[in-house]
Amino acid sequence: MSNFNSAAIEEFKNVWVFCEQRQGKMNPTAFELVSKGRELADELGVKLCGLLIGDDVKGMAKDLGGYGADEVIICESPLLKYYTTDAYAKVICDAIEEMKPEIFLIGATNIGRDLGPRCAARLRTGLCADCTHLDVDTPVYIDFLKENSTLKEDAIERLSGHTMKVLGEDHDTSRDLKMTRPAFGGHLMATIVCPRFRPAMATVRPGVMKKAPFDQAKADAVEVTEFNVQLTESDISTDVKDVVKAAKKLVDLIGADFIVSVGRGIAKDVEGGIALAQELADELGGVVGGSRVAIDSGWLSADHQVGQTGKTVHPKVYVALGISGSIQHKAGMQDSECIIAVNKNPNAPIFEIADYGICGDLFKVTPMLKEAIAQVKANK
Q1: How far apart are CA 306 and CA 303, in angstroms?
Q2: Burial level of 42, CB count in 10 A (0-12/13-18/19+)?
Q3: Burial class (CB in 10 A: 0-12, 13-18, 19+), 33
Q4: 210 shares a domain with 94
Q5: Which of 43, 95, 108, 114 could be bridged to 136 by S-S, CB 3.0 to 4.6 A?
Q6: Are strands 169-172 and 163-166 parallel, antiparallel or unpaired?
């Protein structure tokens, strides 16, 4: 890395996405990041490139093209068949040193959270971890703040000047990646930029970005480039003998079409409230989720959490039972196709984004909802 200068930002161009695959199967987060990367690349007027690493993985390149990649850079070697931090970090840093992308996105999976910091440290650049929102275009970012923050209008408008102070001098932020993530346990949302170094790196939570529709024409047109991998066994300190998968049943919030979530409103009868939510979810053919309060109180396990500090979901129907609707929770479910909220407080913030709001006791309303849905199904 002796000739690599991360501070020479004018030399960097294009948006890259690390496309994680495991044993020949693409992680769904890769398609989400390629879809978002397409938007960022269009805002910057540059190419979107997918970085695909493994052994005999070239056949997956067209899939990435179908979700928006202009080019897929293939890094293949038998030494890359299984993930190891040493091997993947070396190959990624070698490729970035040679081709110099200005933005590099990684999914915040177990692998991504291990890989991102190692690469950022070697490249001497910044990494914003666990992002839930990304922007380059300042007007788009300002619209996001107006919708999702509590900042006053005049404070938001001051950001439209495209400048910030860096080491005492004005810096143009119009090409900087604005990376938003939860801070202080989700009580604040922080937006971070990396003005002095490239690539700007971010790990992004699975399920946060919407996957674009697959386009076969783009898949057929994608450019495939094979990177000359320089990797030997001496570069790898870990020897993977075997991969053993352990099955653990977790609720699939991200893939669910129907979610029934519970919040503080079930406090007077936690078991009864969760049972009602489960019955309604079963009637809908969905799953049970929860607000941060429900998880922190130990009522549900962490894999049920919806929100900025949990999972971001986009179901067909989202039912919020006894959830007031904090900014963090709304940010994790407000893009649902239909939102039904039940709360005793007529001023609960959740009603601001609900398509249907019911002001009432969830313990009385939920059985009525279940009965009405069952009746509609029976009449079909």
Answers
A1: 9
A2: middle
A3: buried
A4: yes
A5: 43
A6: antiparallel
Collapsing DSSP states into helix, strand and coil, what is residue 354? coil
CA angle (304 as vertex; 295, 179 as ends), nearest 5:
90
Instruction: Give the residue carrying structure tokens 């990177």.
Output: 227
**Residues 235-253 as b or e (16 or more Cβ within 10 Å = b):** ebeeeeeeeeeeeeeebeb
- Range of 28's domain? 9-136+175-235
Q: CA-CA distance, 320 to 333, in Å (whole number)?
A: 10
Q: Output the CA–CA distances (angstroms, integers) from residue 224 to 10, 60, 221, in the order listed.
A: 25, 11, 9
Tell me, yes or no, if the pTM score tops 0.85. Answer: no
| Interatomic CA distance for residues 335 and 133, integer angstroms | 13
- What is the number of domains present in the chain? 2
Enter the tokens of residue 273.
Answer: 């409230």
231 and 277 within one domain:
no
Instruction: Looking at the structure, tell me whether residues 229 and 285 fall in a common domain.
Output: no
CATH of the domain at 268: 3.40.50.1220
